[in-house]
């Protein structure tokens, strides 16, 4: 019984470890053209003089507590 349990746990650990090895979609790849264009667009954004105003946060409403009923 112990031997079967140990084999089962070892097999489960092996399967779990093998699925975590490549946990990324197959569409992820290095693209030099995309990386170059991304760097160019970041340079354009950092070089622009446009200043944007930060968004105002909405007003926070106080939380309502539960009323305690007296017996």
Rg over CA atoms: 28 Å
The secondary structure category is: mainly alpha
Shape designation: flat
Number of strands: 0
Please give the oligomerization state of what you see.
single chain
The largest pleated sheet is described as:
none
Q: What count of helical segments does DSSP give?
A: 2
Helix content: 40-55%
Strand content: under 5%
Sketch the topology as an H/E string, one letter per element. Answer: HH
For the termini, the CA-CA separation is 58 Å
The mean pLDDT is 77
Low-confidence stretches: none
Keywords:
single chain, 71 residues, mainly alpha, flat
Describe this structure in words.
- The protein has 2 helices and no strands.
- With 71 residues, it is an all-alpha fold.
């Amino acid at each position: 019984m112990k031997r079967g349990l140990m084999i089962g746990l070892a097999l489960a650990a092996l399967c779990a470890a093998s699925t975590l090895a490549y946990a990324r979609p197959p569409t992820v790849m290095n693209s030099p053209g995309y990386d170059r264009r991304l760097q160019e667009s970041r340079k354009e954004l950092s070089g622009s003089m446009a200043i944007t105003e930060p968004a105002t946060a909405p007003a926070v409403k106080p939380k309502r507590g539960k009323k305690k009923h007296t017996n």
